[in-house]
């Protein structure tokens, strides 16, 4: 199941895209690393990429809280920002959690097969 990797790849490419047709070089490098991970299926890089994605999402949660604190009163705009931001953050964290689970599970399966 490669759905979490493809989701993270799509998020990275969309985050690095600026209209009309410009991609941030950092997003291109991260996308190349994710594609390399999809092809090679290395355990360590999978854990590192998912941990990096979790860290970025924690910064995103901090930015969401910071933006919400700028509202003088909690109105419909603040509620929309809160629910939209939390929905995106939750989906991202689920994808990152699935990636971590996938690569940690891969390690325990290889240990069982080797008799360790």
Mean pLDDT comes to 89
Shape call: globular
Helix fraction bin: over 70%
The unreliable regions are: none
For the sheet with most strands, the description reads:
2 strands, antiparallel
Strand order of the largest sheet: 1-2
As a percent range, the share of strand residues is under 5%
Distance between the termini: 26 Å
User: What is the C-alpha radius of gyration, as a whole number of Å?
Assistant: 17 Å
Number of helices: 4
Oligomer: single chain
Structural class: mainly alpha
Total strands:
2
Instruction: Give helix and strand order, one letter per element, not per position.
Output: HEEHHH
Protein name: Transmembrane protein
Organism: Carboxylicivirga mesophila
Keywords: Membrane, Transmembrane, Transmembrane helix
Transmembrane segments: 6-35, 47-66, 86-104
